[in-house]
Amino acid sequence: MAEAHQAVAFQFTVSPDGIDLQLSHEALRQVYLSGLHSWKKRFIRFRNGIMNGVYPGSAPGFVVVLAGYMGRAKYVQADPSLGLFCKLGQYIPVSNYMSLETQRRVGGILVGTGLWVAIIYTMRNVLKFLLSWHGWMSERHGAATWKSRVWLALVRIFSGIQTPTLCSFQTSLPNLPVPSVKDTMTRYLESVRPLLEEKEYKRMEVLTLDFQKNYAPKLQWYLRLKSLWATNYVSDWWEEYIYLRSRNPIMVNSNYYVMDFLYVFPTQRQAARAGNAIHSIMLYRKKLDRAEIKPFLLQNTIPMCSSQYERMFNTSRVPGIDSDTLQHVSNSRHIAVYHRGRYFKVGMFYDGRLLLPREIEQQMERILADTSEPQPGEEKLAALTAGDRVPWACARDAYLRLGKNRQSLDAVEKAAFFVTLDDTEQRHDPNNPVESLRRYAKSLLHGNCYDRWFDKSFNLIVYKNGTMGLNAEHSWADAFLWLCFFFLGYTSDGHCKGQPHRSLPGPQRLQWSIPSECQSMIDNSLAVAQALADDVDIHIIPFEDFGKGLIKKCKTSPDAFIQIALQLAYFRVRKFCLTYEASMTRLFREGRTETVRSCTMETCAFVRAIISAEECYRLCTSAKKHQQMYRMAMTGKGIDRHLFCLYLVSKYLQLDSPFLKEVLSEPWRLSTSQTPLQQPELFDLVRHPELVSSGGGFGPVADDGYGVAYIIVGENLINFHISCKRSSPETDSHRFGNHIRQAMLDMLDLFQLPL
């Protein structure tokens, strides 16, 4: 094969005349181009590091400050060095090397540079102080007070006039504050009050008071100490103990999925859809490496943390006996592809450039046309990543880190991302929407339990009919960080634009030697994963009766409206329960998430009122309470991350707190999350109604509970993804979905607005 020859830079033979070197000029050329690409990337990263290090300063700003300082010194006939070299001359004979005029110029440059650096650090710290104020969040949209307008103007001024790059604001973001124990305890008791009977609530009050008085002061001291030392007092512990130390399967339990568009089918050709998608993702990675992506700014001014972008690509979760680790390589020039039980390594660069979409399609066509059979154990190998973590760690160390298995495993784990060319067809069928979307979601969430590498940061799944989707690992980031799929277009016959490459080396088939003992472990993991997958039930509702446009006419937050509807729906099924709503804390450096406890006294009062057909003015009160709690979670005043860290400190100190033990064991029977709609300019449903995003979903958190993800699309559509376990007699995703739909309609009826 041509690619096998080009993989070797030179060969040699031994003859009576000596050693005859046979150089492959093409291979040497590719080595040269690869090195050139690597050095370009190093230079770009070095440059970005300098730019981010001096932000909000800039080179033009430095010239202005230096010229202004030197000009003023000359105008007032003062020494621009401020006597720096005179003092230095007492210890070093500077005059032997520099004239007096040169000393003044060099000293002036040093002092001017110091002045420029002082201005930068002053602006940065003032900006950090400004970003620590969150009063703007409590004001109604479009009705900002003069205080907020002045604050916003100051933020813009101290952000500098230079265009920021992705990580420019990182050092200006405030650290996540540690809430006071008293405030956390007060908010906790308030959150459980609607869930407990009077006797139980009194008992919980006693436990809370005992903890606050006897345990909390010591634990809080350690947390405050950590907050002074660490950038974020929660995130590292959250990543380690919630994700990486879990020994349960990450498939269904942790990983989540993202769907394709509902109605857009740009091509029926699987290879072509993969070619455009992979090329656009690699373009996005290039922009990410060069920090050419704009930081996410609320109201186009308020920066959010960008640290989670760092591990989007070239990242894989590696299993361990006690804890997993995240393996991230700085650069990966290939992807790993799975098709019909075979693994392939596909290079993404040739001739010193990224492969074009038609060339990537060409590589996918070669894989689809490959008729070779899987090697023994190869087809279901990825079932190890879907099962329990300890058997996977044992199998990996014992059998997959040896010989050619090691090279093949490295090719998968160090790939930019993982691609599955799925041999099934998935799509939203208008004639059978419920069942078609259920199959589609379950395929993305777990597939066959062996055809996705669940440890990769994300899997791109491309189906036989051209539909695609994503399955993402959760430990490296929260909510998928908005891959930009560029609209690259197709030819009239469905191919990617452009021409195939005549001499492009083909994909490399990965080689495995998997012994029978390892194959038995694979079968065991597959059995565990299959049982978990079969137990998951998913129901998807494209709710088209109304959307955020009509909800806003009710003078209510769309998110609060939906959360209250979920409480009403759940109450009609069972009763009130502890509810988890994910909220981001990326207003702080290295922030991840916090919990909004959506079941409040106000919400329960509204639900009881609407059930009994009483006056329902309580809806507005309940919505305002929910918005207040959401703002508190976003601004570091949540409950659960503080309690989680206090619990960890108690374990380190071997202090057994009955309060913390009980609180941390409470089940979240209703776990909810809103999928934010990113890149709204690409999803203008007024001009492009066909670009309806399906959003994504996740598995249930509790065995007898529901997982509900929802995405608010445009003005007239809300997509709900509802999951539960079939094995629980208490749950039924279809029944709960019907109650959600009815709850939404019943709440809107209160306002007597026409649909």
UniProtKB/TrEMBL annotation:
SUPFAM superfamilies from the UniProt entry: CoA-dependent acyltransferases (SSF52777)
Cellular component, GO annotation: mitochondrial outer membrane
Top-rank EC class of the record's enzyme: transferase
Entry's localization field: Mitochondrion outer membrane
Every Carnitine O-palmitoyltransferase N-terminal domain range: 1-47
Matches recorded under Pfam families: Carn_acyltransf, CPT_N
Stretches of the chain forming a coiled coil according to its record: none
Active site positions: H474
Entry's Gene Ontology molecular function annotations: carnitine O-palmitoyltransferase activity
Record's bilayer topology term: Multi-pass membrane protein
One GO-annotated biological process of the protein: carnitine metabolic process
EC number: 2.3.1.21
Residue ranges crossing the lipid bilayer per the database entry: 50-70, 106-127
The keyword Ligase appears for this protein: no
Choline/carnitine acyltransferase domain sequence ranges: 176-742
UniProt KW keywords: Acyltransferase, Fatty acid metabolism, Lipid metabolism, Membrane, Mitochondrion, Transferase, Transmembrane, Transmembrane helix, Transport
UniProt cross-references to InterPro entries, sorted A to Z: Carn_acyl_trans, CAT-like_dom_sf, Cho/carn_acyl_trans, Cho/carn_acyl_trans_2, CPT_N
Family note: Belongs to the carnitine/choline acetyltransferase family.
The protein, known as: carnitine O-palmitoyltransferase
